[in-house]
Amino acid sequence: MTGATADGMTAAAALKASTLVEALPYIRRFAGKTVVVKYGGNALAGTSNHDALTLFAEDIVMMRLVGMRPVVVHGGGPQISEMMHRLGKESEFVDGLRVTDAETVDIVRMVLKGQVNPQLVAAINVHGNYAVGISGVDAGLIRAEARAAGLGYVGDVTAIDPAVIHGLIDDEFIPVIATIGSDASGQAYNINADTVAGVIAEALGAEKLVYLTDIEGLRRDVADPATLIRQTTADALDQLVADGTIGGGMIPKIESCTRAVRGGVRRAHILDGRIAHVLLLELFTDDGIGTMITAEEG
What we know:
- The chain is built from 10 helices and 16 strands.
- By secondary structure, it is an alpha/beta fold.
- The protein has one domain (about 30-295): 3-Layer(aba) Sandwich (Carbamate kinase), CATH 3.40.1160.10.
- The strands form 5 sheets. The protein has an 8-stranded mixed sheet, with helices on both faces.
- The longest helix is centred in the N-terminal third of the chain and has 28 residues, at about 5-30.
């Protein structure tokens, strides 16, 4: 072995060691804390040059093994749109919400519970029998009512009963939740996954609410990466929505973040789920990554 090679190996080993040491205070801080992670359909569909789902699963299992209590909430927008296209139905959106007739709500259930949820559960369980897939209709987890007649079976959350989640995480499982809710009559509703993640985080008293999507964070100008907002507050985001800086499909995500941090969740984060090990970079390093939202400055 040449001196240069040995030096290179030593430097690489030292970097790994320093990274582990850097993570120690964060591991201590977050041990026993609940972190709700919303894994977006865009993150699942929009991989870059690596298998984003595999790396996401590794991050979630690592969080669990160092004593955190991860809860995964998932969407499946692109997958639902693809299935609708295959079945000859066109997707229609109003303010980022999918108009959902009776046929579409059946498609939503089929995709979320039959495709996306098992895919996430299987990816996590490659590393051990940790993940359990559920939906909002299980054990009355998510109660909902129709948001507006023009949206069809799009629901607003009326109540969260987190007993089934508490039972799973107390038994050291990782809940993986599909965002279908139901009303008292059993009618199913398609509920925006960003919204569900926020209300579940609030109901659980989570330490963090994390959104994984297909952009690196919140931008003042969606077309300009240089306008990335690293840290902001709920009041500042309200202003950005009011003046039109934030619009479209980002609105439910931002509204969910601001409600959650005002409701007791300490931090909300918007991260690029296509980046390798983005959760670990955000949780366990000094620099962090993406956009962080707090209730107030400081």
